[in-house]
Structure of Periplasmic chaperone for outer membrane proteins Skp:
Amino acid sequence: MKKQFSLLFWVLLSATQLISAQSRGIKVGYIDMEYILDKVPSYAEAKNQLEQKAEKWKQEIETKKNDIAKLKEALKTERVLLTKELIEEREEEIAFQEKELIDYQQKRFGPNGDLIVQKATLVKPIQDQVFNAVQDLAEARKYDYVFDKSSDLTMLFAAKKHDLSDRVISVLTRAERRQQMSKKQLKEEEAKEKLEDMMADNPEMTERQKQMEERKAARLKLIEDKKAAAEARKKEADEKRKQQLEEKNNKKTGTVSDTAKPTAAQDSNAAQKKEEKTEAAAAEKEKRDEARNKSLEERKRIIDERKKAAEEKRKQQLEAREAAKKAKDSVKTAKP
């Protein structure tokens, strides 16, 4: 009877967890520890220093190998001239130096050598920071699981949208920046971070922000173009006024100004300017048409994405209801 009660309890508990998970959806993310470490400035600097040490150790090993090779070559050359005792003495010296070389290699590059130990010492504080950042992100954004892509875990496929590595790097760099900020700068930074987090969690908001920035850039460009056109008109009006004054003065003095005489070159320049204005107007119209078409396509894409998201949500709700129904049926059949 106790066994049956225990079995029924676990069935009910499993069904409850399944219904809860399916109703809200399991949220999974991953990080790439190697990618994160490469992006952390303090780790990159310390890693560079460690690599320089390792390179120095390798050079010392090569020097020892060359010394041993020279001893062996000298013994080979002088063997016929040496006594048995001297030969044995030199062989013992070579063997001793070879053993010293092996011991030195193990000390520097062995499984428990200086390189591994110092690398672990270097990585651990940053790994702790990464783990803390991942825990904060997982709790804040309700992730059920977060994996490390660079670990022994085999990941056959990982969608980029579930990669939290850049967010973790952002958290670490924010912490470094905060240490050098005033209270006012901290407030501004917190507001900026909040907006970035909201945009990261809401792709539609990111898209709207992008569209707003594009419209703002277009408005600024239009203002600049109008300003440039106004300056060009002003310059042209000033030149025309100057020319009219010269002609008036020339009439009073009875002379004809060179500027008053239209030349073939001037006619050509006027025609060229007129043609350039026509081409510029056509190009501007084409640009406006292209921007309008792009805006219409973007609006259509957003509507399609919203429809798709709504259909997926309805599908998930139906699946959750079906799972809940199956769980209830299984509980009914499990009752004695």
Notes: Strands lie at 28-31, 145-148. The chain is about 80% helix and 0% strand. The radius of gyration is 39 Å.
